[in-house]
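Worked example 2:
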Amino acid sequence: MNYCRKCLLKDMPENVYFKNLYDYIETLSEDIKANAAEYERRLNICKECDNLLNGMCRICGCFIELRAVIDKNYCPDIDKKW
């Protein structure tokens, strides 16, 4: 797996930075990842949120898929949704 460590997202073709994101998620230790059902539950909640914009959270600026996959993470909204 190749990660572009010296590139800005704006300099990468769109499909490349998405692939890098998903490759990175795949390499995370299972010890820190939420289980698959919880991950999907979180993503489904985020899909309904008004703060989701182009895969990013407008509150904290994170990529939703990356934030949701880490078990200890939580929704950054004042009224946390997960």
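The chain has a mean pLDDT of 89. Residues 55 and 63 are 6 Å apart (CA to CA).
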